[in-house]
């Protein structure tokens, strides 16, 4: 993929680079759907959810677009009975509302496996695997048919009682997956700890090189936002 993108005239390069980023994102999504063979079956939790949401099944995924101008995104992922032992990277499916990992000999789920899964509201796990972030990150945890169900992701920014989340000045707390939150800078502030005021310098740079710089600046900006989150 990357090799195919080189050897192009600089003018085209930026455009092509963007296309390549997009393509590798798509590839990533598809890889999650092909993590194991077979397709989502009608009778399963994800199958029922998919047909009730009018989604489209592709391998182990249920895909849907909000409207015809938007690209399709993964709303359901069924990796049930897939012989998975470790769950580390499912990030292609970070838009999913429902994920089924039941009937797998899972020994370990990485703490960050569901970081960024802000929509995830229904997770089915083998009975002995705890819900990501622990019980406190979910409205309801129950056992059913030998599985553990984690239902209703709690908003970490709205925890009355226990730990109160303090984002730095000029930033707002936003959910970022079970047990995670991020502090994003308020409008007109940016940079480390949102200390810099003024418009983000997107419009200062024009031209093909400019577009490339914008992509880089954006990536840096995102990295900095993440840094603030881990305070
Ligand atoms: C699943 O449902 C679809 C649409 O309702 C149907 O076309 C398909 O045959 C069903 N598949 C199975 C295995 O029952
Ligand atoms: C499609 O979705 C986008 C973003 O969610 C929204 O801005 C736009 O108005 C929608 N278009 C229609 C026709 O609903
Ligand atoms: C799990 O997969 C195996 C082989 O792929 C199959 O024989 C078995 O029936 C499946 N079990 C369930 C509960 O679907
Ligand atoms: C689970 O993963 C963590 C870190 O990735 C590792 O330290 C730990 O030993 C693993 N536990 C098992 C049971 O594999
Ligand atoms: C989490 O909730 C489940 C189901 O209610 C319960 O069995 C388990 O003991 C709880 N775990 C902790 C650490 O509180
Ligand atoms: C915060 O939580 C309370 C009770 O859990 C709820 O009534 C309220 O709507 C929540 N606020 C937000 C912004 O989610």
Automatic annotation (TrEMBL):
Keywords: Membrane, Signal, Transmembrane, Transmembrane helix. One of its GO terms (biological process) is positive regulation of osteoblast differentiation. Residues 183-194 form the EGF-like domain. The gene is APR3. This is Apoptosis-related protein 3. The chain crosses the membrane at residues 200-222. Residues 1-26 form the signal peptide. PANTHER family: ALL-TRANS RETINOIC ACID-INDUCED DIFFERENTIATION FACTOR (PTHR15926:SF1).
């Amino acid at each position: 993929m990357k090799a195919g993108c080189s050897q192009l005239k600089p003018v085209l390069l930026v455009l092509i680079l963007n296309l390549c980023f997009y393509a590798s994102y798509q590839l990533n999504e598809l890889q999650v759907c092909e993590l194991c063979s077979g397709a989502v079956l009608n009778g399963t939790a994800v199958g029922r959810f998919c047909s009730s949401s009018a989604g489209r099944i592709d391998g182990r995924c249920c895909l849907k677009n909000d409207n015809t101008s938007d690209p399709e995104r993964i709303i359901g992922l069924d990796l049930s009975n897939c012989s998975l032992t470790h769950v580390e990277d499912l990030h292609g499916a970070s838009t999913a509302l429902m994920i089924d990992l039941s009937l797998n000999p899972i020994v370990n789920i990485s703490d960050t496996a569901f970081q960024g899964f802000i929509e995830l509201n229904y997770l089915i796990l083998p009975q002995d695997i705890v819900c990501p972030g622990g019980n406190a990150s979910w409205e309801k945890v129950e056992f059913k048919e030998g599985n553990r169900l984690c239902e209703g992701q709690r908003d970490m920014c709205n925890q009355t009682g226990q730990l109160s989340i303090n984002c730095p000045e000029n930033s707002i707390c936003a959910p970022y997956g079970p047990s995670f939150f991020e502090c994003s800078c308020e409008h007109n502030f940016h940079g480390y700890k949102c200390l810099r005021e003024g418009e983000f310098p997107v419009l200062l740079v024009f031209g093909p090189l400019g577009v490339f710089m914008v992509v880089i600046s954006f990536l840096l900006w995102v990295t900095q936002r993440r840094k603030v989150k881990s305070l």
